[in-house]
Specification:
The complex is a heterodimer of chains A (351) and B (221). Chain A has 351 residues and is an alpha/beta fold. Chain A is built from twelve helices and 14 strands. Chain A starts with a strand and ends with a helix. Helix content of chain B is 37%, strand content 19%. In chain B, strands 3-2-4-1-5-6-7-8 form an eight-stranded parallel β-sheet, sandwiched between helices. In chain B, helix 7 (133-147) packs across helix 8 (166-183). The radius of gyration of chain B is 16 Å and the shape is globular. The chains are: A alpha/beta (351), B alpha/beta (221).
Amino acid sequence: MKVLMKGNEALAEAAIRAGCRHFFGYPITPQTEVAAYMAKQMPKVGGTYLQAESEISAINMVYGAASAGKRAMTSSSSPGISLKQEGISYLVGSDLPCLIVNVQRAAPGLGGIQPSQGDYFQATKAPGHGDSHIFVMAPSSIQEMADFVETCFEKAEEYRMPSMLLADGMLGQMMEPIELKEGEPKEVEKPWALTGTKMQRPHNVINSLYIDPPELERILIERYERYAKIEENEQRAELYKMDDAEYAVVSYGASARIAMSAVDKARDEGIKVGLIRCITLWPYPKKFIEASAGQIKHYLAVEMNMGQMVEDLRLVVNGRAPVDFFGRAGGIIPSPAEVLEEIRKISKGGK
Amino acid sequence: MNVFDAKPITIVTGHYGCGKTSLSLNFAIQEHFETIIDLDVVNPFFRSSDYINMLTKNGIKVISPYFANTNLDVPFIPSDVRTSVIFDKKVLIDAGGDDQGSTAVGTVSKDIISRGYNMFYVVNFMRPQTLNIEDAEEIMREIEAASHLKITHIINNTNLKHDTDEDVFRKGLKLSEDLSEKTGLPLLFSVYSEEKEYIIKNVFSNLYKINSYVLTPWEIV
């Protein structure tokens, strides 16, 4: 059965249905409905909703619950995610699975409460200090806000790493009809979890401190071998009208919805343009872009920031075609008309 | 007499995301309100004050939190809210969702009561927290407690946006009639949007047609 949901509510409900019973958060616009929904619903399913005294406390509570093998999550918006970064690095360093939701708002600093995609670099390049990656997915619809929550939990557990749902204020606040998943979530064996030895097995240790440099280097190399496997197996993107495309817009999240609308209008004008919508941001969907190189004469990255993902796009295209950028920032959402104008420019060999 | 002219003050309330803002915009324009007050201090986006230009072009006075539409998120109530509630002839109040949102309207409840008011409870039975009449009634009572005001009419706004079909419409109508019977409050009408006219034509009665003003950027042509 379909229901009408806000993005923030949908992701919260999806987390409960995915078996998450431990939510630790701290309110911040525009994701506060996640916490409000959890506060109402968690007690009804025997789960824990806890408003911590700060974002740092919340992420460390996630560390604790994840150490015990529980599906745990936290949610915040840009400034709050920065506060969580120390904890995220510790989670990475301890190979702990969990879900972190970032409903991005304009930044830096306190910035503003309107939508943005300004945290792309933070999510994909430096989610915390040290050599680290987290699994990052970018939903573009309310259905995906719900669906990707479970995928994020599953990938986090499969690869023993934190995952992030990187949304934005637009997706958090808007409403669309969605189908919620029924049925039991997949249970995963967690032999590493701290569940008590019952004097029947050796102690498990969850730790990110290594005094011996060769040991820490060995662990980092092993972790990076796992990252290579994720880059090999988990890249996801949606190709829209790309079959005969000569020009490509590359986008993600809410801006991809705007880009898609602009691509449709450009097609009406006879411009052979398609859209590569990135679904995983880390791993970056290199394969999908690689497959289009040679076919595409000119790429246009569209984002709600000053130009971040465009750098990853340039690395993959590697000079084989021009790569341009169009974005709005500060909480301004680009309009389909503005993106259409940029598509017209590149189709005439300009920009 | 038109229900919108029956009392000096008309208040639109309901569960978070039931369509209050969309309905308030339509009522303000179609029913020629003098003033619309945006008291939705809970919701940062998609609120009446986002549509100030459209409303003022229609000759409607808009009173909204001073920092609405900016990057500041300061939930407080401007002083001219009370002035309008006391003096303006035909006032529409877009209250915030749920009990938290209705607390704002509660701060001027004494003035509202002395002027006389109708308070509409908008319900969408496709929202997960109001899927049945028990839940819908619970939220109704929470709103009454927080606002210190009594709901006078029910408005059925059951929809799944673009996925609304005849079944959805029929189900919403049935539940709204049940809620009306259980609470003793009249069902004022059922709402439909212009693009769904083909579904309900000749099938249902007691309807109110609205324009879809509240759109995402990619829905704006």
